[in-house]
Amino acid sequence: MLSELLLELGAEIQDPEEESFLLFSQRVPSQNLGFIDPKAKSLELEVAGRDLVIQQSPSIFSSDREEGTTGAVVWKIAPLFANWVASDNNFLFKTSILHSNSNVLELGCGISGIVGLALSPKIRRYIATDQDYVFKMLKLNLEDNLPKPKSHKTGQRRKGKPAAELSANLSSTNIKIVHLDWETSLISPILFDSCFSGLNLPQGTSLDLILACDCIFNEALIDPFVRTCVDLCRLPKAESSRRSVCIIAQQLRSHMVFEAWLFAFHQNFRVWRVPDERLHEDMRGGSGFVIHLGLLREPINSCI
Question: Mean pLDDT across the chain, nearest whole number?
Answer without folding.
Answer: 84
